[in-house]
Design brief:
Helices cover 35% and strands 29% of the residues. The protein is an alpha/beta fold. The chain has a single domain (2-20, 32-308), classed as Ribokinase (UDP-N-acetylmuramoyl-L-alanine:D-glutamate ligase). It has a 9-stranded mixed β-sheet with strand order 5-4-1-8-9-10-11-12-13, with helices on both faces. The protein has a 4-stranded mixed β-sheet with strand order 3-2-6-7. Strand 4, helix 2 and strand 5 form a beta-alpha-beta unit. Helix 5 crosses helix 6 (204-218), helix 7 (256-269) runs antiparallel to helix 8 and helix 8 (274-288) packs across helix 9.
Length: 311
């Protein structure tokens, strides 16, 4: 089982077409065709693990509201253990990101969210819930969306307690210091540059220096930096490996980082080497950016991408 800890968000999509401009203001009028919801934020990692047939358990916080109840229901549909998802009743609503999409393009996004840190009582509840499952976990994914669940206090206690397990972190620069002792992190280029205090330059040598700096500073086993059209760079503790992108068409990068850490972690848990796991995650990223909205990739899609890619 892979444990996922972090900020749960509901991704809502309003799909439609634009055929005219509003007479009220210079904005497009979207004729709505359908509305759907998907697990987002850290919970999108659960969706990706389910696509890989990897058992999972989610740990986080939702509000005492209809979207929060939907999160519990949807996790159940994905056969993910939701006993570590706390329903809060003190004016902390479930986070929702609503995207309006027309002609396969995102027109606008609006967010309903609460970014304040969870209180000490909630932190302790989550820690106890994680401890009750950690013994049977093959890996742990810490998915940080900086929405208040992964507080400095929780991270300071959590990572040392999980030593001996695979601990992957999808990071936010704000919490850099608190990822000390994780197995690996998977920042994008901008996040890596901010975490390392270096210029955001997508040059191989420069990215190698970022990776080595963060590897040493945080005591990591390895680091995987995603670089958009330049693919990925893996530093495995000995050398850097630059992996060209496998993407052929890029429609939407929403949630691609969740796919990368889910596939990378699941591959490591299956016994793959860091370089093998990174290559598999790269193919998975190539699959999901070719879809619209928060998407997933299963093993068959990943294998097809690998077989048809020139990487």
């Amino acid at each position: 089982m892979i444990l996922v800890i972090g900020d749960i968000i509901v991704d809502e999509f309003i799909w439609g077409d634009v055929t005219r401009i509003s007479p009220e203001a210079p904005v497009p009028v979207v004729n709505v065709g359908k509305v759907d919801r998907r697990l987002g934020g850290s919970a999108n990692v659960i969706r990706n693990l389910h696509a890989l047939d990897a058992p999972s358990a989610m740990f986080g916080v939702v509000g005492d509201d209809e979207p929060g109840a939907w999160v519990h229901h949807r996790l159940g549909e994905l056969s993910s253990d939701d006993s570590g998802v706390l329903t809060k009743t003190n004016n902390r609503p479930t986070a929702i990101k609503t995207r309006v999409i027309a002609q396969h393009q995102q027109i606008v996004r609006y967010d309903h969210e609460w970014n304040s840190n969870i209180d000490a009582v909630t932190q302790n509840w989550l820690l106890d819930a994680i401890r009750s499952k950690a013994e049977h976990a093959s890996a742990i994914i810490i998915s940080d969306y900086a929405k208040g669940v992964l507080t400095p206090e929780l991270l300071r206690k959590l990572i040392p307690e999980l030593q001996g397990k695979i601990i992957g972190v999808d990071p936010k620069p704000l919490n850099t210091a608190y990822y000390q002792g994780a197995t690996f992190i998977t920042p994008n280029l901008l996040e890596a540059s901010q975490m390392a205090g270096m210029d955001n330059i997508n040059d191989d040598k420069h990215v190698e220096n970022m990776a080595k700096h963060l590897h040493q500073e945080l005591g990591l086993a390895y680091i995987l930096i995603t670089r958009s059209e330049r693919g990925m760079t893996l530093f495995d503790g000995k050398q850097c490996h630059h992996i060209p992108t496998a993407a052929r068409d890029v429609f939407d990068v929403t949630g691609a980082g969740d796919t990368v850490i889910a596939v990378f972690t699941a591959s490591l848990a299956r016994g793959k080497s860091p370089l093998e796991a990174a290559k598999i995650a790269n193919f998975a990223a190539g699959v999901v950016v070719g879809k619209v909205g928060t998407a997933t990739a299963d093993w068959q899609e990943i294998e097809t991408m690998a077989n048809t890619s020139h990487v």
